[in-house]
Hints:
The protein has 337 residues and is an alpha/beta fold. It is 36% helix and 23% strand. The protein has ten helices and 15 strands. The longest helix has 20 residues, at 301-320. The radius of gyration is 20 Å and the shape is globular. The chain starts with a strand and ends in a 12-residue tail after the last strand. Bound molecules: NADP nicotinamide-adenine-dinucleotide phosphate (NAP). NADP nicotinamide-adenine-dinucleotide phosphate is lined by residues 8-9, 11-14, 34-37, 40, 58, 73-76, 78, 96-97, 124, 126. Residues 8-9, 11-14, 34-37, 40, 58, 73-76, 78, 96-97, 124, 126 line the site of NADP nicotinamide-adenine-dinucleotide phosphate.
Amino acid sequence: MELKICVVGCGMIGREHIERIQNRIRGAQVVAVCDVVADNVKKGAEIAGAGVATYSDFNEAINDANVNAVLVTTPGQFHKGPVLAAIKAGKPVFCEKPLANEAADCKEVVDAEIASGKHLVQVGFMRRYDRGYRQVKELLDSGKFGAPMVVKCTHRADGVAESYTTAMAVTDTAIHEIDVLPWLINDQWDEVQCIMPKRSAKAHEGLQDPQVMIMKTKSGIVTVLEVNVNCGFGYDINCEVVCENGVVNLPCPSFPTVRYANNISTKIEDNWILRFIDSYDVEIQDWVDHAAKGETAGSSAWDGYVASITADALVKSQTSGTFEKVVTGETPDFYKK
Ligand code: NAP
């Protein structure tokens, strides 16, 4: 089955995905675009090309008879409505991360999907599709290195807008590690803590940056994550997994090593979009391939809910300073692999 996709939300990443689907993804085309901002509908439609239907109301767009799949790229607080509408219509839906800003909203989606009896929802945590993370996972899963014990990560960005808040270090930034690490090391979060080090003079007023997040899994693996969004030297993602018999490092994007002026140097990627550009292609292709068969892949609605609960615990720890438990309840049978 060819996917005939309606994209709800034609802002920055919505337009990226429209361009991606029309030009690089097999077995799918964008047939409808929707946004509450007229100018963004127009821009989305221009990228999608001739014949695309345009909407301002997501219910009308999702229920267009020509649409058989939905891609949601509205801001997080507006994800729940279109995702629930897609489930109600029985149409597969790819929702950009986060599934929703509130854990209660994520749970509503989980409950609606279970009630529908069909696996319809995929959440856009693209790191699970990054070549480097996949290589690390393959090595860890081989068992050769023994059990993982410690994970050391950095999530550094050049700088952030004035609107970026202390909580967003968790909900916008660390949320990627929150989702990808349990998948990588086959474990679940148990308790998490956020520690505030000396504040960077480059952080705007009111923003605590950097932050150190300590996350323990149920089996006792400890992750130490440095979130540092004003590093000023690029977008720098690192992940080192210390196992019983060896250490596995996430490969960095490859750039030439330059010998010049008494220095040996290698470029660091400029921003997240360039660092993970290939992952988005692989992720959307995988969604299309699975959705065409009535299946889902990648992060499920349950994974989106668990990420939200974990983020809430970390945000709580930003104030309490202590370890906070991650309480999700049992994984429903519906989501057990
Ligand atoms: P954006 O540029 O603000 O675009 C979102 C668009 O959706 C805006 O035009 C917005 O209008 C519109 N919108 C809001 N409510 C709507 C509704 N009910 N129906 C239709 N359109 C609606 O946002 P973005 O930066 O593209 O981010 C979108 C989502 O992608 C976010 O959840 C973000 O976290 C996620 N994202 C993921 C990654 C990743 O690495 N996976 C990277 C970037 C973004 P208004 O401006 O009026 O609200």
